Amino acid sequence: MHDTSLLCIMAGIYIHIPFCKRICSYCDFYKSTVLTFIPDYLAALEKELEIRQAYLLNEPVETVYLGGGTPSLLTSVQLSGIFNTINRYYNLSADCEITLEANPDDLTPDYLGQIRKNTPVNRLSIGIQSFHDGDLKLLNRRHNASQALSCIRNSQSLGFHNLSIDLIYGIPGMNTSQWIQNLEQAFSLKIKHLSAYHLTIEKGTAFHKKLVKGDLKPVHEDESLNQFAVLRKMAADNDFIHYEISNLAREGFFSRHNSNYWNEKKYLGAGPAAHSYNLISRQWNFPDLKKYVHAINRGEPFFESESLDDITRFNERLLVRLRTMQGLDADGMLRDFGEERFQNLMKSVEPHISGGYMVREGRFYHMTEQGWMISDGIIADLMQV
User: Fold this and answer.
1) I need a labelling partner for 79 at 20 to 30 A (CA). Which of 70, 148, 371, 372 fits?
2) Extended strands (E) in 34-171
3) What structural domains does the chain harbor?
């Protein structure tokens, strides 16, 4: 079955909270450890949300997502202030999905109680990453395995039942047996959603520096593929639907916010480095906290933008749709991009179908399990220039 949330018409708001107490070894998102800058940032964020209130044309906002960085570093009072501003300028739907990303060690019973009482947050996305202390130390996470377990149980006991957790596979030194233990632990906790990411080593991260020095040995490709296959099987055995290449959930608990991105819906991104998309152009805020705050306070431009041509929209649709369970709508590609591009796409698709990496069901083309394992290469092959 397909989760109907994938088909909803929606607009979304993303708020980037760029603060961290500690930088993880693998992270390449924009962040800052200067926590004393939080009040200045929140004041600028409020101004941005006011300035950009017309961006979504007063369409109903079905999802709000606070990501980071570490949004759970903010107090419940600070979070409440953000939501008051959003409610003042935007049209939130009655059943809006409101997600807070959180670190396990922030989710104490007291903090969870305050969030429950003082904010409209109804979904938590918790950065567990692993239930093994050795992995967490290597990743430079600030929590331990015991805190990972207790924060989930505490969240559930205080009424947060729509829980998503992040896990990482392909960690150097992690074998398939350890990955299975992580998944067994996750599913035993009765979570509703799992985001499982293969570790990627990006330039500028601590892991990349170690890799260049020869102090870090990446996981062998066969081990990575085996861990992905284990993820697929164990998810199915636990009634989780693998609805996007890195996301799995029980029926009815797909991430509505992320589905917004994959289905090319409008979204407003606020905060440094946040991106916005209104179906015509894309905007991205300055990835520099001080520059962002300074520009907003002076009434100067604080973002850059680009209009999307047909080729860019064509390639972006391939990129996002082929990552999902539903796949790529052939009729939509023909309608929106014309006969010539459509026929070129069909020629490019055929070898991947013959090879068992893609299938067609009705008007949709999607990856097989084997295809998802090499999806980056397939999507690159299908893109047009």
Assistant:
1) 148
2) 61-68, 92-102, 123-129, 163-169
3) 4-261 (3.20.20.70), 310-385 (1.10.10)
